[in-house]
Amino acid sequence: MKIIIGSNNPAKIEAVKHAFKGNYDFFSVNAFSGVSEMPFSDEETIKGALNRAESAIKIGHGDIGIGLEGGVQETTYGLLLCNWGAIASNEHSSIIAGGARILLPEEIAIRLRNGEELGPVMDDYTNKQNIRKKEGAVGIFTNGKIDRAEMFTHLTKLLVGQYEYHRSLIK
Ligand SMILES: O=P(O)(O)OP(=O)(O)OP(=O)(O)OC[C@H]1O[C@@H](n2cnc3c(O)ncnc32)[C@H](O)[C@@H]1O
């Protein structure tokens, strides 16, 4: 089975490879998210994940397309880090699942509300480079307990499990 991952981000690719068990061929493509660089709601982040999955399966001529998208969601408690994923398949309508979420520190949230993107803000905050491709904001603010790849692995397992369940209903 040919699985097309709609991103070249190593944290996302690692997560998908970990979440699938069995004989699969993985490819990654630069899929189109169709949403803003910094999605600012669950709705927008889900849309980005769906667009990536659906664009990945088309570009890569795969059996399955996987889209993973990061974003934030405003709440009365502060700004939540959110992540969403989608599987597009040739057999049925797309499936979605959400990842674990944490509140971002207010000093980060203020910068995002002022129009900055989380990736560069995290690099600036930590004095490191490409945090989004490594441990991610979740890794930094959980003291390394859960990094971005692990969070996306869990999210992808939610997708794969639902995908298998849907397939078992079709057969
Ligand atoms: O290469 P792609 O797949 O586009 O990966 P990305 O990390 O750049 O893009 P996302 O769509 O996942 O995230 C949207 C924005 O939020 C940033 N972001 C999301 N989650 C993050 C995290 O855990 N740590 C750092 N930046 C994050 C990211 O850099 C983008 O600017």
From TrEMBL:
UniProt enzyme class: hydrolase
Swiss-Prot/TrEMBL keywords: Hydrolase, Magnesium, Manganese, Metal-binding, Nucleotide metabolism, Nucleotide-binding
EC numbers: 3.6.1.73
Catalysed reactions listed for this entry: ITP + H2O = IDP + phosphate + H(+); XTP + H2O = XDP + phosphate + H(+)
Keyword Acetylation applies: no
Example of a GO MF term: ITPase activity
Taxonomy, superkingdom: Bacteria
UniProt xrefs under InterPro entries: ITPase-like_fam, NTPase/PRRC1, YjjX_NTPase
Non-canonical purine NTP phosphatase/PRRC1 domain sequence ranges: 6-154
Leader peptide range in chain numbering: none
Swiss-Prot/TrEMBL cofactor(s): Mg(2+); Mn(2+)
GO biological process: nucleotide metabolic process
Keyword Membrane among record annotations: no
Protein name: inosine/xanthosine triphosphatase
Lineage, uppermost ranks: Bacteria, Bacillati, Bacillota, Bacilli, Bacillales
